[in-house]
Design a protein that fits this description.
eight-stranded parallel barrel; 20 strands; alpha/beta; 431 residues; single chain
Length: 431
């Protein structure tokens, strides 16, 4: 009978053994060209005339591997050997190379041994929204997040702390009647934030309480600074007054420090505010209160749900522009973040923050490579909302996607990660 043995770089047999195709050439030489002829130019497929036994017996003697074979009619030659590939001593296909990075990924034990970055609850800073009401309110654009009552904040902190979360930052929703252009409520010692900070530090002395330093929650303009009454600003609108705003921020910072705040987070992006706040704190004896500056805070589209939660978006009635582009950074710029970082370092910042997070991993890495201070990343409300929406629609594995996102922050260079997923992520990390 006349048959064709079809191979891919090797000659295969039905008992799952393999014959290196190069051995077919030696068989052809030993048995005679009239017995063994090569189809398609002698590359990988062989045929013979007369009895099949001589070829099969010769092949049986040479074959040692255990790979499946294919014998096909002569007209169905399937594949030819791949140029450049070799065959090892066992007759298996071999791509010659000494370095094989996959060896360090072959088992979970090996992967965990060489893992470069690990995120734990100790890396998380948990943002909590709080209001003056005695009940919680859902935040529609941030499923799973709430505006907490003071009592609810206390319970939430206790639970998260039991999971290993040690850092908490407070964001207040202030009643409309307490808001003004100068945001004087921000330094009221009997206000919502100072009273809650004092209560938290009394009940949980070993946690770190962070507080936001900015005027927008207290502003009837919805801006992070005081709005001028003239029309000399962008687009013929009012200006955000830099130095006058800093004066209020210093008052706010001292008030928060007196209440017991461990870390102040100036998020306003006024020029020079870190140095002024540092001097004001030191003059009052609060030399141990840290400043985590919002160093690279971009004028981003990812803040929408946060502004829903606090009603802190620029107001249509404001004399200022309906955006924050005159003080927050342009998303098109990266080197500018180095200017901001250099200023903050010189002015006494203890940590530098990048906000938003995921779309700005390059900025996180840039600051990590160019400063010696710890870096914080803010996994902002828009990022949270996107992950939640995808998970709720069954488009993503929420746990896997969230933990991967947090790991990306750490890999990029973040030491601290502010995320609304802190509570749930800590649960997953403890499983």
């Amino acid at each position: 009978p006349r048959v064709v043995v079809v191979v891919v770089g090797i000659c295969l047999f039905s008992d799952r053994r393999v014959l290196p195709w190069r051995d077919l050439f030696s068989m052809r030489r030993d048995m005679g060209q009239d017995q063994v002829g090569f189809v398609a130019g002698g590359v990988g497929a062989c045929s013979f005339t007369g009895s099949a036994a001589p070829l099969r017996l010769a092949a049986e003697r040479k074959c040692q591997s255990k790979v499946q074979m294919t014998i096909a009619p002569e007209q169905k030659i399937l594949k030819t050997p791949v140029p450049g590939l070799s065959v090892n001593n066992d007759g298996n296909v071999w791509v010659p190379q000494r370095a094989r990075p996959r060896r360090n990924r072959k088992t979970e034990g090996m992967r965990s041994l060489v893992r470069e970055n690990i995120v734990g609850p100790q890396n998380l800073v948990y943002p909590l929204f709080v209001h003056t009401k005695d009940y919680n309110e859902d935040i529609e654009s941030m499923p799973g997040c709430e505006r907490h009552s003071v009592d609810s904040v206390m319970k939430e902190v206790k639970f998260a702390h039991s999971l290993g979360v040690n850092q908490f930052i407070l964001f207040p929703k202030i009643p409309e009647g307490l808001k003004s252009n100068t945001a004087d409520e921000c330094y009221n010692p009997d206000g919502l934030v100072p009273q809650l900070v004092s209560r938290l530090k009394h009940s949980f002395p070993d946690i770190s309480v962070w507080t936001d330093v900015a005027l927008d929650p207290y502003s009837d303009q919805g801006h992070d600074g005081i709005v001028s009454s003239d029309n000399r600003g962008d687009g013929g609108k009012g200006r955000i007054l830099n130095d006058e705003t800093i004066e209020q921020l210093c008052r706010q910072s001292i008030c928060q420090a007196r209440a017991g705040s461990d870390v102040l987070g100036p998020s306003d992006m006024m020029d020079g505010r870190v140095g002024a706040i540092r001097d004001a704190l030191d003059a009052e004896g609060f030399t141990d209160v840290s400043i985590c500056s919002y160093t690279a805070k971009y004028a981003s589209a990812f803040y929408g749900p946060f502004r829903d939660a606090l009603d802190s978006a620029p107001r249509e009635s404001s004399n200022a522009p309906q955006n924050k582009k005159t003080y927050q950074m342009d998303p098109a710029n990266s080197r500018e973040s180095l200017v901001e970082a250099a200023n903050d370092v010189l002015e006494g910042a203890d940590m530098l923050m990048v906000k938003p997070g995921m779309p700005y991993l390059d900025i996180i890495r840039m600051l990590k490579d160019n400063t010696d201070l710890p870096i914080a990343a803010y996994h902002v409300s828009g990022e949270y909302a996107m992950l939640k929406a995808a998970a709720m629609n069954g488009w993503l594995d929420e746990k896997a996607a969230v933990l991967e996102a947090l790991l990306c922050f750490k890999r990029a260079g973040a030491d601290a990660i502010l995320t609304y997923y802190s509570r749930q992520a800590a649960i997953w990390m403890n499983e």
